[in-house]
Amino acid sequence: MNQDTGPACGPLTRRAVNMLRAVDAGRAELSLSCEPDLYVDGLPCCDQATARLLCRLGLISPGRPGAAGDLVPAAVTEEGRRTLAVLPSRIAG
Questions:
Q1: Which pLDDT value is given to residue 1?
Q2: pTM score
Q3: Would you state the pLDDT for residue 11?
Q4: In this structure, are residues 79 and 9 in contact, taking their beta carbons and an 8 Å threshold?
Q5: DSSP state of 89
Q6: Which residues, 6 or more positions from 12, have their beta carbon under 8 angstroms from its beta carbon?
Q7: Residue from 82, 24, 39 nearest 57 by CA
């Protein structure tokens, strides 16, 4: 992780940061599949590509095991917590 901006892939977009914060706030669920979908406040996220990127980067993960297709709570990983810790409280742009 880059200590100034986030994961080694580069800075996160404002949308990605907001999605990460929604997961951290306990407002999100992931579908269990090879390409997980993110739901926030019970609604499918409008940017599933970014949701999958957050999973691939290891910033979010399923909060518990389940069967393929199940919706489970999404959880912020340790790497995700480190990323949140270095982000400014407000993202410009």
A1: 44
A2: 0.83
A3: 82
A4: no
A5: S
A6: 5, 6, 20, 83, 87
A7: 82
Q: DSSP string of 14-70?
A: HHHHHHHHHHHTT-EEEE-SSS--EEETTEE-S-HHHHHHHHHTTSEEESS---TT-
Q: Taken in order 8, 14, 16, 21, is the CA torsion positive or negative?
A: positive
Look at the block and give the residue holding tokens 């970014």. Answer: 50
CA distances 7 to 25, 70, 86, Å, are: 20, 28, 11
CA 38 – CA 64 distance, rounded (Å): 15
* DSSP secondary structure letter of residue 72: E
Structural tokens at position 42 = 């019970």
Q: Give the pLDDT confidence of 32-79 residue by residue, as tens digits.
A: 999 999 999 999 999 999 999 999 999 999 999 999 999 999 999 999
